[in-house]
Amino acid sequence: MKRLIVKTLSMAVFICGWLVSIASPASAAERDRPNILWITCEDISPNLGCYGDDYARTPVLDALAAQGVRYMNAYGITGVCSPNRSCLITGVYPSTLGSQGMRSMTRLPDAIKCFPAYLRAAGYYCTNCSKTDYNFATPETAWNESSRTAHWRKRKDDQPFFSVFNFTVCHESQIRASEDKYQKNTARLTPDQRHDPARAPIPPFHPVTRESRKDWARYHDNITAMDYQVGDVLAQLDEDGLTDDTIVFFFSDHGAGMPGIKKWVWQMGLHVPFIVRFPEKYRDWAPGAAGGTTDRLVSFVDLAPTVLSLAGVKIPSHMQGSAFLGSAAAEPREQVYAIRDRTAERFDMVRVVRDKQFQYHRNFYPQLPWSQFTSYTEEMPTMQIWRRLHEQGKLNPVQNRYFETKPVEELYDVAADPFATNNLADDPQYAKVLKRMRDQCRQWMIETGDMGLLPEYEMLVRAEGKTPYDVAFDPAANPVERLAEAADLVNRRDAATVPELVRLLGDDDPAIRYWAAVGLVGLGERAAPAEDALAEAVSDQAPYVAVTAAEGLCHLGRIDAAMPVLRAGLKHESPLIRLRAINVLDRIGEQARPAIDAMRNARIENGGHVGDYLNRMSVYVPAGLTRKE
Predict the structure, then answer these.
(1) At what angle do helices 480-490 and 431-447 cross, to 10 degrees?
(2) CATH no. of 455-626
(3) Considering 242, 287, 345, 526, which has the largest number of Cβ atoms within 10 A of its Cβ?
(4) Contact partners, residue 171, CB within 8 Å, separation at least 6
(5) What is the CB neighbour count within 10 angstroms for residue 208?
């Protein structure tokens, strides 16, 4: 993949084009270009009638699919919204931009624009109604208007437009909304459109309970409510006589807003419904006949270059995806990639490769369970009963797996196992597939300057005076290959690695020292020969190394040496370090109870690299401890 080379001439051309587009009316050539409409929604998997879901009630979207083409292999970059949105709007992976954390804040280099800026420079009128949530401040150049009233109707006569309408009625929060709010959301549904909880299909990893049936029925009711809203926008297009000039996209920002799906990167968290309708004049760009399907692999990183291709706008070289429609459409891709990093108050790192049959996961923190207690997720009744039944020992093995620690690698035949319940990583029959996808994962991380192996705090420190994107492709600041090798050693979870981990605790690079400390934490009591090295590491100048080493000492019974370091972490200027300290204290359980007031106080402190933006979240509540009180 190519890295953008910024040239003074190209910037001058951009600025001139921008000024011309503002000052001049649309040309005849511009009038011949398609309007492009994105209708997006939140938190749904392909649970639509047109995707074969016979529990669904989605007449508008089913009709849109009958007029357009359904993509059967469209995937988000992750299972949660803001990193996906940063990718959609830039055409760059979040792990390259430094926007991979769920609710984080990065900065864009001057050379990278939100892609509507390129459309605006070419004469398009661009509107967003209304969500941004990009994990960076929205540049003024991104939109002509971004608000709850933004609409193509405010453009000049005959000016081509790119418009986004985003619907939130199907968001996770609306499944568990109050009864009054739920009734208001679904007021337009007819009695036969309401979903009977007794008939709700339950995925095999969820317990079949009254709570889960109600949540899944509401999830489907909310999709039907969203279907009405899609119909409203399409009706406005018809009213304005624009249907024959507009290419319409419909897709979700990630999979279903249910526990074990949203925020996660198994098939259901990544796979989204994706429909494109082409008017007759642009039918030659369609990948198939109206009402048909395509199995072409599509990633969210491909959306920005695809829109530019349809509009006849040159695709910038920094974009990491490839167009799948229009004059600049590339050859179909053979695999897509996905990520999972910090999600709200919990740190994690997973990298994913998938093709049309297999999906591979590399878990960089296998010592942690999939089910880390995340306050927002725990508000869902399904999650509450799921956890309660686990604690009571009443789940079957498929349902209980979510509460176990992760394997280092996962491999699924998703064509045969869409719910990802049968991990094939240890099956010799799939050894070649495993190696191929493991190698693809590593190569992709290197080529894209993946910054996930840098602790988030360290990434921001190394970006001071520049941007995280600049760090991504600096081999000294982001030695991806060497960091990955250290993580591979860590994830062996073999006591024989202790001497090498101790050696790496003395490395010049604090990010390498961090992974060495993680490895010793993962070994638990088997790290006893490294006790002296850990006791020294709690004084490390890198605060995340010190906090991680303190966790290692806790596993060796050295609470006396660890607690002062963790208390100091709670007072650090950066919320990311305070959050790390709280995560450690939460994991060590009852031993942390004397620090619970300090943990609560850490929640309200401001400052640090991401400041108030991160502090606005409920991330500093010691969830695991407070729920035991």
Answers:
(1) 140
(2) 1.25.10.10
(3) 345
(4) 42, 43, 222, 257
(5) 11
DSSP tag of 281: G
Q: Is the peptide bond before 146 cis (omega within 30 degrees of 0)?
A: no
Query: What's the pLDDT tens digit per position in 53-75?
Result: 999 999 999 999 999 999 999 99
Please name the residues in contact with 239: beta carbons below 8 A apart, sequence gap of 6 or more: none
Please provide the DSSP assignment of 18-81 as one string: HHHHHHSPPPHHHHTSPEEEEEEESS--S-SGGGT-TT---HHHHHHHHHSEEEEEEE-SSSSH
Check: CB of residue 106 under 8 Å from CB of residue 467.
Answer: yes
Spell out where 53-188 has E strands: 69-75, 125-129, 145-146, 161-167
Q: DSSP string of 362-429?
A: EES-TTSBTT---TTGGGSHHHHHHHHHHHTT---HHHHGGGSBPPSEEEEETTT-TT-----TT-GG
At 85 the three-state DSSP class reads helix
Query: Which residue ranges does the chain devote to CATH 1.25.10.10?
Result: 455-626
Helix axes 575-587, 543-555, angle to 10 degrees: 10
Amino acid at 294: T
| Alpha carbon distance 445, 215 (integer Å) | 37
Q: Which of 50, 81, 87, 441 is catalytic?
A: 81
**pLDDT range class, residue 603, cuts 50, 70, 90:** low
> What is the CATH number assigned to the segment(s) 35-331?
3.40.720.10
Contact 540/513 with Cβ under 8 angstroms? yes
Range list for CATH 3.40.720.10 in the chain: 35-331
With 0-12 / 13-18 / 19 or more C-beta atoms within 10 angstroms meaning exposed / middle / buried, residue 380 is buried
Evaluate whether 136 touches 114 at the Cβ level (below 8 Å).
no
pLDDT tens track for 317-347:
999 999 999 999 999 999 999 999 999 999 9
